[in-house]
Each structure stands twice: as structure tokens, then as C-alpha cells.
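Replying to the earlier thread about multi-chain prediction with a worked example.

Input:
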Amino acid sequence: MNALRKYALPLLVVLALLFPLVVTNAYYQRIGVMSCIFAIVASSLGLLVGQVKLVSAGHAAFFGIGAYTSALLTTKAGMPFLVGFAVAIVLSGLVGFLFSVPVLRLKGHYLSMATLAFGIVAQMVMLNWEGLTNGPNGVPGIPFASLFAFELNTDVRMFYFTFALLALLLWGLSRLYRSPVGLTFQLIREDAVAAATLGVNVTRYKVTAFTLSAGIAGLGGSLFAHYMAYINYDTFYPLESFMLLAMVVVGGMYSLFGPVLGAVLLTAVPELLRGLADYRMLIYGVVLVSVLLLRPQGILSGRPKHLELRPKEGAKR
Amino acid sequence: MTKIVLAAREVRKHYGGVRAVDGFSCELQEGRLIGLIGPNGAGKSTLFNLLSGAVKPTSGSIELAGEPVAGMRPDQFSRRGAARTFQNIRLFKRLTILENVLAGFHQSSDLSLLRGVLGLSSYQRGSADVLERAGALLEAFGLYAKRNELAVHLSYGDQRRLEIARAMASQPRLLFLDEPAAGMNAYEGQQLVELIRRLWEENTQLTVFLIEHDMDVVMKLSQEIFVLDSGRLIFHGTPEEVRGSDVVREAYLGGDLDA
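Result:
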């Protein structure tokens, strides 16, 4: 078991790096890229739901804000991708911040209701602010992502780019979860009242987590827009928020890799079942319900490693 | 002239028509061990919630070290030196014992988000002053050996002790203990009394304010005792004075029984 744990991660990384080289079918490569993008967005939600216990039922809104920001800046304003990408992160984070300051006074189900409402309103804005978003026509002709002169114009390049960003994100999150700030998030999750009596400014940390999470979701949105080349309001419908929640819960919300696994499963499985035509969604639903019944804690039930204190060499305890 | 750690004036908490605390005033001096007693429903826990910042008063003023704090958030009370335990233990159950104590060190921890993400925070570098202090505190409370176990797996008595250790980690000037010996047998209770006394003796400036039903515990520990009934202060004095007071006896036994 320990050996498995030790080698599982490097093995997975190697497999992922080989994936677009071995699997040359463009359709499967596309599933690979989409899995990476949704893994990023699901991880952002995992931070909120699994670490702080803030259940956002409107996370597709931030995904959408990032996508639209990046798409509009590059198509209408002619900005390079990297500018659109950076502004997408900052702007969705900012919207997350402005939204969370008043709304995080709500708790539990009420908070979820508010985020759900926010998701619906955000989609209505995308649909009806025609002057900015082209309304129902969406934004066509979004340029490829590019790193300065290097265009990410193939599925393989985009796969490596999104995978690198996912890896970077997980690296950062794994550190965050073991830092004092991460511990503070977990204190709020476990018992916000007790945390407050120890000096934790609960609202401030919730806002921090929400802002961070919204920014990361916006990052995913930007990648999505430049990969699809076309977006419209329809992608960011409220049900998408629940898909994201399903990824987090099915994969395992406390675990760092849970949302990633959930995202890959829920992106890939419906595609792999495509041959079954009408039965596809039925089987998909059955799989989803079975997982929740058999493993309510999610497939990956572990949580990030606990902090440990090892006695120093020679110290007597 | 000794310093006043906490001063409350005419503090009230009304829930609709219920006057849980109805005009309580006190001055707690630095370095004292003080008891709070009263019959069930007298408003002791509500008073604790008010004085520790968990609940905002309907009216009245509270000062911590001379600074008005009524209406502030609990974390602001904590930052000004108040810490507490709960009648129904509130540990972070799915975190380890070490992490529970580290929670108490929140205010002395490295709370930079950036350093945390980059893996440069104090915990992660291992250099960690905070980690060492947490270790020392766990040793003092006899919990060091179990530091990496989940709090939920501790025995009841250990959970009580961990909660006190966690509160002490925030380096309070004023420690509220809400029925620390509740649910313990005589032996455990005795050990707890010794622990509290030792804590108080080792931290000369620490003021301990405790609610306790077990009269033995209160009488043994307290230098002075506040007696609460129906949300009002009915008596304040030394344990001997409380023992001899007719008002107190009446409140506990009922006036007519006493005749």
C-alpha cells in the first residue's frame, strides 16, 4: 500500500505525459484536454467545499466570467492571449470577492441558495447584455492560446499546457492545505464558532477562499474559451454548477486529487458511453448514484496529510 | 493597585421576553482564580458567552484590559486576551491533537497566503517556533504521545484537557472554563483541579474564570465566587462567605424550604 502510494503519483504523471503521444486520435485527445480544464475548475470548487465547507451552487458563473473576459478581450479588443488570461483570473476573482463579502454572512443552505441565484443571474447577464457579449450568438473566432509567439494550436500542445497548469495548481494547493492558512480553512470547516474564539476572523478567511476559488475557476474558463474557439451563454448554465459539484463529491472533496478524479470521470465517462446512444445518460446517472450510495465520502476519501511534529534527533521527550 | 482584566457594567441579554442575563456588573482582577455558580438556568453560560464575545449583549458595556469590546466579534475578544472552553466540548474532531493546539496558535502563526502556497510558511519549513511551542504545550498537558491522533479518538477527560491546552495556546490573559469537570468521575475531577491550579500558578498574570456545578471543585479552586440567579448577581464573596450566605442557600434550595 505504501509502495503504491509512493509510486502512484509519478506513475500517473508519466502516463499523462505519454497520453497524447500514444493516443493520437484527436477525439480522445480532446477528452484529455477537457479533463484537464475541468479538473482545474473542479479543484477550485474542491477548495471551497472540501476545505472550508462553503457549498457554492453557482460556480459555473465564475468559470463563465473567466471565459467571457478572455474571449472578449482577445476578439473585440485584440489583446494577446496572455493578457486575456491574466485579466480573466483577476476579474473573476474580483467578482468572487465582491459577491462573497455580503453573501458570506449567510450560512449553509442559505449560502448555497444565494450562489445558485448568482449563477442564474450571471447566465442571464451573458445572454442579455448583447452589446458586450453578443447575446445568444455568443463569441465566435476566439484565437488559440499562445505563449508569446508560440501558438498552442494543436490538441497535443493544448494538452501539455493545461496539464502543466493543473499540475502547478495542485502543487500550490497541496502546500496551501498544509500551511497555517490551510489549517485555518479546515478549522472553519470543523467548527467555525470554536475557531472564532481562538482569534480566527472567520469571514475574512471565507472571503479569501472564495476569491481564490473564483479566480481559479476563471482561469479554467479562459482555457476553455481559447480551446473551444467559440463560447455562448449555454455552456455556463446553472446545471453546469451542479456538474462541478458532482465532480467534487464523486471524486472525494477532502482529497487533493478527488476533484481531479471526479472531473476526469465525469468528462470521460459520458463520452465513452456515447455508443450506447439513448441509454447513455441513464447509465451515467446510475453510475453517479451508485458511487454516492457505496462511497458517500467520494472515491478518494483521504484528506491531505496531517501536520506532524517529529521529535528532533537526540531530543528526549 | 492590581490591574482590572475585565470590567462589565449592567450587561443584559434578553431573548424576546426571557431575561437570560439581566444587568450583570463585575470587575475581574489580574491573576485571580474566580468561580461562577448558580442554579440551573441562572444564566451562567449566557454570561460566559457574553463576556467571551460569543454572544452580543442587548445592552451594557464590557471592557477587556480597559478597552470597550461589547458588540465586537469573538475573534476580536480573543485578540484582546480572552480564551474559553465550552460546556459541550468543541474540538476540531477530524483534525489531530497537534493541529488542534496549532489552532490555538493562530494569532502567532505565519498567515501569509503566498508563503503558504510556496511552501515557505513556518510549519512547512520545520523551523517553526510555533510547532515547538505547540509540542511543549502538549507535553505540559500530557498529550504529546498522542499528538498525531485525531481528536475524536481521545478519551473524554483528554478531550477536556486538549480544549484547555488549545485555549492556553492563544496566550490568554483571561481564561473562561465552562464546566471543565462536567461528566468526570471524582478522580478525573481531582486531576483537573490540580491541572487548573498548576496552570494558574505558572502563569501569574492569568485570570481564570470558571463555571462549575461541582461545589467541591469551586470551593477548592476559587479565591472569589460570583453567584448568579435568574440572570442577576445575588452574591459575591470568598468561598467561606458563599458557604455561609443565606441568600445563596435560598437560591439553591428555594426560600420556603429554608424556613
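Chain A has one domain: 21-44+57-174+208-294.

Feel free to reuse this layout for your own posts.
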